[in-house]
Design a protein that fits this description.
Layout: H1 2-28, E1 42-61, E2 67-82, E3 90-100, E4 109-115, E5 123-132, E6 135-144, E7 151-162, E8 171-178, E9 182-187
Antiparallel strand pairs: 1-2, 1-8, 1-9, 2-3, 3-4, 4-5, 5-6, 6-7, 7-8, 7-9
């Protein structure tokens, strides 16, 4: 069963990598879409289709035993759509902490900085991560910079772990790629 699950996850990661590469190229060539409103008063004011990078853990994650762990999520964003017509690539950094294991990567508190592609200044805020079925859901609130008071969210999957998850060889790092756009939403309702 684990081999089937691992094979399916690997295939999904390869497909996601190809999709993100295409999304990044679309952003480079100005083919991004526009922000849109939903029927419940929430308006997407920014969206980035490509997000990928690395998560490091201290101490490293064990397979099924949760322990207080700090996680640093770093990466690049691209293919961003806003009213400011962003171009190029930006960076993200999330500093998170919580009780986590490799089977349950839940980080209840932390901070983030998003250095948007040009011409926007960085946004900073608070965030947390919960895991469900192998998908990490990061949500938070912008507290300074562009989009202050608005909500951010992104889903991502991890792969390519460094370590095995044992106490002798905990997982100290993993790569990630987004499973859903990084979005910033405002409540205009």
């Amino acid at each position: 069963m684990n081999r089937i699950h691992a094979s399916a996850r690997t295939a999904r990661n390869i497909l996601l990598s190809a999709t993100i590469a295409g999304a990044g190229m679309a952003g480079l060539f100005g083919l991004a879409g526009t922000a849109h409103a939903s029927t419940n008063g929430l308006v997407t004011v920014a969206s980035c289709g490509a997000l990928a990078g690395k998560v490091t853990y201290s101490p490293g994650l064990l397979t099924s035993t949760a322990q207080e762990t700090d996680a640093t999520v770093t990466g690049h964003v691209a293919n961003c759509t806003t009213s400011s017509h962003l171009t190029g690539f930006g960076t993200v950094t999330f500093q998170l902490s919580g009780d986590a294991s490799l089977n349950s990567e839940n980080f209840g508190s932390g901070t983030f900085t998003i250095k948007w592609p040009s011409p926007l200044m960085p946004s900073e805020g608070t965030a947390g991560v919960t895991e469900s079925g192998g998908i990490e859901e990061l949500t938070g609130t912008v507290t300074s910079g562009p989009y202050t008071g608005d909500e951010i969210s992104v889903n991502y999957v991890t792969f390519g772990k460094t370590g095995s998850g044992t106490s002798a060889n905990p997982v100290t790092a993993q790569k990630y790629i987004n499973d859903q756009n990084l979005t910033v939403t405002a409540n205009n309702g």
